[in-house]
Structure formats: structure tokens, C-alpha cells
Design goal:
Helices cover 68% and strands 9% of the residues. The chain is an alpha+beta fold. The protein has two domains: 7-195, no CATH class; 270-416, Histidine kinase-like ATPase, C-terminal domain (Heat Shock Protein 90, 2-Layer Sandwich), CATH 3.30.565. A five-stranded mixed beta sheet has the order 1-2-3-5-4, with helices on one face. A hairpin with a 5-residue loop joins strand 4 (398-403) and strand 5 (409-416). The radius of gyration is 43 Å and the shape is rod-shaped.
Length: 433
């Protein structure tokens, strides 16, 4: 029964085993007595019928057992009554051939109670009992016996009564074990569906994570490469080879940085910049790079980094989130905001770490950008804000964007730390990066 170890299932298995062994033993004893009762040729029809009965009985029990251990296999339940009818018919023929087969009635009583509804099984058992008594009387009289004797009546009647009394208990055990089997199958199906849904959810989460990483690193880098390439081409058209060479160097540096980021995606590591220096150092270098790239395009953008509070070592998810936020925000500043000044401020405030990115550019409508409306920037900042919110929310932090057309932009991020001044804490339990 699918490996159930409950008491009722064990008792049911023992009862079923006893029933089948009893049927087989009684059938073998009857066949042996037929062989010993007279010349073998005269007993051949009875032996042939007994072998056919054994085959039919064995086929039915094996099919039921196979289905009980694997529900996907053939289900013999719809044909159980036909099987019982075939077994009963062969038995009826055998009891008229030899009185030794009448004792098969006792396991048959239990089969009748198991397969048939109780309102049908009781009359069938009564008729079977009468037939057993009649067969015993018939064979006893044919052997010059005294005819019908009291044991010939009491034996079958007591056997039938015992089966009727204990049958409901057997039936109850069977139904309980069957319900346990069905419950176990449902549990396995539920577990399988849960595992598939968790796998699908994990796949979607990983896709979202990769989309954020690509948007905040590779996509921004490729955009910078395209713009620097155009600036270099324009410088060459104007005969300014020195400026073109300088911008091509920027292209090479950006491409190298993108290659390093791509390799780290494959290895599942943090940003290569964070492997080489602290978050503050990485943000300072990012400001210098942003200012240099803006200058290469002829834009007069000044980018400054400010550090407030006493720096502490942050967990990798915190450092990566803050660096990616700064990269995405500054990329939008120097490419689209038309700002003259940008300031990145990293603040350590004991129980939380904060980062503000300010620019005095043209501004935009944050709600429209995040909703993907027509007034959103065409640079993909709508997705960038949604991506950044997902990153920050995964660390139980907050993200605020203050901007309006013509009034510049401030992106403010707050991430809580587990302990004030914790040096190497981990994100809250259950958070995934």
C-alpha cells in the first residue's frame, strides 16, 4: 500500500495475506485428496477445474496488488464482480465434483463481503452456505453414509456467521488503508506541484535578477560605448585625433569593465570593483569616471562624492545594491539629465546606511517613468526605477525619488542594518540576492 506503516495498514496486509494463503492451502489440500482418492484419470476434470480456479484467483489478486502499489497501472476494480462470479462458478462446479472443495467457502465468504455491497453479500453468503450443506449431504449419501449430519450444518453455518461478523472490521480496515493510500498519492502530487511551482518561481526570480544586473551594468556600459564611439567619430571628422584617441581609450576601459562584469555574472560573484576596493572607493571612482565620460562628450558635468559618518563593512548584497543604484542613476544623469552638477552622498548612521544621488538636471515625473507612461524617459529609466525598487525591497530598505520637470532629481536609498555598527552582518533571514 505505497509503503504505509500505520497499524491498520499492517493488520490489513496480514489479513489479506492470511486470506490468500488460506485459499491456496485449502485448494492444494483438496487437489491432493482428489489425487489420493482414486485413479488419476477419473480426477482429471476436477484437477483441471482446480488449476483454472487457481489461475483466475491469482490473476485477480495480482492485478489488484499491482494497482494498489502503482495507481497508474490497470485498475481491476470495475471487473471485480465479474472476477468473483468466475471464481464462484468454478467453485460451485468443483463442490459437486468433490466434497473436498467445499471448505473453500470460508475464504470466499470474505471475498463476497469485500467485493459485493453488504445488502447483496449477505444473501449470497446464505445461498453459498446452503449449497455447501447440500453438497456435503450429497457426497455423504453417495458414499453410503448416514446422510445429513449435524457437523455438516454447523460447520458451514458457523463459518458464514464468523465471516459476517468480522467482515465489517476487514472492510473498515480496507477503506482506511485505501484512504491513506489516496491521501499519500495526493500528498505526493501536491509536493510535486509545489516543487514545480517553486522551480518556476525560482526561475522567474533569477531572470528578474539577471535583468536587473544587465540593465544596471552591461546595458549602461554598452550605451556608454556607443556614445563614446560616436564622439570619437565626430572628433575624427573634425580632425581632432587627440580627442578621438582619448575617447577610444574610454571605450576600451568601458568594454573591459563590461567584460569583467559579464565574467562575474557567470561566476556569480560581486562586482569586480567591490573586489578591489571598498564601497566608498568604488563610488568615488564611479564619480570620476562619470565626470570623465561627460567631458569626453563635451558636457560640463561635475560629479562629487561625499562620505558621512564612520564607514563599516557592509554585506555583499548591500554594497552591490548601492553601487548598482549609483551606476544606473549617474548613467541617466550624464546621458539624459543635462545636469551641470551631480553629488553622490554615502552616509553611515549606525542603524542604517543611506545613499543620495542628486543632480540639477532637467528632471522628470517619477510616477510616469515607473508606470511606463508616455512622459517617461526614453532611456529605460522606468524599468531602472522598478529594478532598483526590487533590489532595495529585497533588503527591507526604502527608495524615494524626488523630481519634477526642470527641478533636478534626488534618488534616496535607506537600508537598515541588523546591528548598529555591525561589521559583517548578513541581510535579514529569508532575503535572496
Amino acid at each position: 500500500m505505497h509503503g504505509e506503516s500505520s497499524g491498520s495498514a499492517i493488520i490489513l496486509r496480514l489479513l489479506r495475506l492470511s486470506l490468500h494463503v488460506g485459499f491456496a492451502a485449502l485448494l492444494l489440500v483438496a487437489m491432493a485428496r482428489v489425487l489420493m482418492s482414486g485413479p488419476v484419470p477419473s480426477g482429471w476434470p476436477a484437477l483441471a477445474l482446480a488449476l483454472l480456479l487457481a489461475t483466475v484467483y491469482l490473476v485477480g489478486t495480482v492485478l489488484e496488488k499491482r494497482h494498489s502499489t502503482d495507481a497508474s497501472r490497470f485498475d481491476p476494480a470495475p471487473y471485480a464482480r465479474w472476477w468473483l462470479g468466475a471464481v464462484s462458478l468454478l467453485w460451485l462446479v468443483l463442490i459437486w465434483a468433490s466434497a473436498d472443495f467445499v471448505w473453500l467457502a470460508f475464504p470466499l465468504f470474505f471475498l463476497q463481503l469485500h467485493v459485493l455491497p453488504r445488502r447483496v453479500a449477505l444473501p449470497v453468503i446464505a445461498v453459498s452456505t446452503v449449497l455447501v450443506v447440500v453438497a456435503l449431504w450429497f457426497h455423504n449419501r453417495g458414499n453410503a453414509g448416514p446422510g445429513l449430519e449435524l457437523p455438516m450444518v454447523l460447520g458451514p453455518v458457523f463459518g458464514a456467521a464468523f465471516a459476517v461478523i468480522t467482515g465489517p472490521a476487514y472492510r473498515a480496515l480496507y477503506l482506511e488503508a485505501e484512504n491513506q493510500r489516496l491521501a499519500a498519492e495526493e500528498l505526493r502530487r501536491t509536493r510535486g506541484e509545489l516543487a514545480r511551482s517553486q522551480h518556476a518561481a525560482g526561475t522567474l526570480t533569477e531572470r528578474a535578477r539577471l535583468a536587473r544586473e544587465i540593465h544596471d551594468t552591461l546595458a549602461q556600459g554598452f550605451s556608454s560605448i556607443v556614445l563614446m564611439g560616436r564622439a570619437a567619430e565626430k572628433a575624427l571628422d573634425g580632425g581632432d585625433t587627440a580627442a578621438a584617441r582619448d575617447r577610444l581609450r574610454t571605450v576600451q576601459k568601458t568594454a573591459s569593465a563590461n567584460l569583467a562584469e559579464a565574467r562575474n555574472f557567470v561566476r556569480g560573484l560581486q562586482s569586480p570593483e567591490l573586489e578591489q576596493m571598498s564601497l566608498a572607493g568604488s563610488l568615488r571612482r564611479l564619480c570620476e569616471k562619470t565626470e570623465a565620460e561627460a567631458a569626453a562628450r563635451g558636457a560640463g558635468l561635475r560629479c562629487r562624492f561625499d562620505l558621512e559618518g564612520t564607514p563599516v563593512e557592509l554585506p555583499n548584497p548591500y554594497s552591490t545594491t548601492l553601487l548598482r543604484a549609483a551606476q544606473a542613476s549617474l548613467a541617466n544623469v550624464w546621458v539624459h539629465a543635462k545636469a551641470s552638477n551631480a553629488v553622490v552622498t554615502l552616509s553611515f548612521m549606525g542603524t542604517e546606511v543611506a545613499m543620495d544621488i542628486y543632480d540639477d538636471g532637467v528632471g522628470f515625473r517619477p510616477e510616469a517613468a515607473e508606470a511606463g507612461g508616455t512622459s517617461a524617459r526614453t532611456d529605460g529609466s522606468g524599468y531602472g526605477l522598478r529594478s532598483l525598487r526590487e533590489r532595495v525591497a529585497a533588503l527591507a530598505g526604502t527608495l524615494d525619488v524626488e523630481s519634477a520637470p526642470g527641478e533636478g532629481t534626488v534618488v534616496a536609498i535607506r537600508l537598515p542594518l541588523l546591528e548598529p555598527g555591525a561589521a559583517a552582518g548578513e541581510p535579514k533571514s529569508g532575503e535572496r540576492q
